[in-house]
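Human: Here is a favour to ask of a fellow structure person. Comparing notes only helps if you start from a blank page. I am asking you to supply a protein in sequence and C-alpha cell form. Write it directly below this note and I will take it from there.

Assistant:
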Amino acid sequence: MTDQTIVADGLLKRYGDVTALRDVSFEVPRGTITGFIGRNGAGKTTTLKIISTLLKTDDGTCRVFDLDVREKRLEIRRRIGFLPDVFELPVVLTLREYLSIFADLYGVGNGERAKRVSIALQLTRTEALADRKMSALSRGEQQRVGLARALIHSPDLLVLDEPAAGLDPHARVEFKELLRLLRERGKTVFLSSHVLADLEEICDRLVVIRRGSVIFSGDVAGFRTQMRSATRWRMVTIEGQATLPGNMRTDVVASGPNWIELEGEMTPLERGRWVSEVVSRGASVCELSPQRSTLEQEFAKAIEEEEDLNG
C-alpha cells in the first residue's frame, strides 16, 4: 500500500481559452490533514473536483488510493467523502431522512444504516437537528449537514471545499476537533479554506496554488523556510527607551515610545547583550519576546513574491 493517498502529476485543465490548471503536481500523505490555499480563481475547486472524479483533466494524471481517477471512478467515490463549496439541500426532508438516503446510495445495509446516521450526527454535533426539516436550518447548520453527508459512509479520504464557511467561532472549534479526531483514526483530509489561522492550527502540510500553478507543497515549517521568514523580536520597557542593539544582524521594523521590534536572528547570548545594553542606559525591560508571522502573512508574502517574479 502506498503512503500517499493523493498523487497529482502534471495536471492540466482548460475551460475554452482559459487555462485553470497548468502542470499541477503534489502529494497528500495518508493519515494527514493537508491544507490547500490560494486566492479565488487560483484553481482550488477545479483540482478538488478532479480528485473527486467529478471533472476530467485535459492532461496529467491523478491517483487516489493508487487508483487512476479516470479509470476507477466508482471505486474511488466509494472511499471518499466530498463537500463542495456550494450545494443544495432538499428542504422537504429532515436531516435524518437525508442522511439515511445517502447511506443507502453508498450501499450501507439496512442493519447498519441507523448506526451510521447516528455516528455522523454525533461527529458533526447535529443530533438536535436530526428531525428538523432542512428548510429551517441556518447557513452554518447547513454546512454541518454537508459534512455529515460526507462522513455517512465512513470514507478513508475527506475532500472539503471551504468547509468552515458559515460556521460561527464555536462551531469552527468543534470542526477542528473533528478533523483531529478523524486523523487519529487514520483518515486523510484534504481541504481548502480562506481561514488560514485555522489551517495553521491543524494542518500537517500545505499545498499553495497561484494562477493554476503549485508554488509550494510540503509541511508548514518548510513553507516558512522557503519564505525565508526572519524572526521578529519585540522589547518593551517601563522606564527609558528600548533601543537598537549594537553590532547585531537585525533591522528595526517598528517602534514606539517604549517598545521596538527588530527582525533578524539573535542567539541567546546576543539577546542577553541587548537587554544589558538597554538596562545600562537606564531603561527597565519588562518584555522580550519573539513575534512570529502568521500563515496569512506568509501566504501574502508568497503571492507578492510570485507576482514580482512573473510581472
Remarks:
- The longest helix spans residues 169-184.
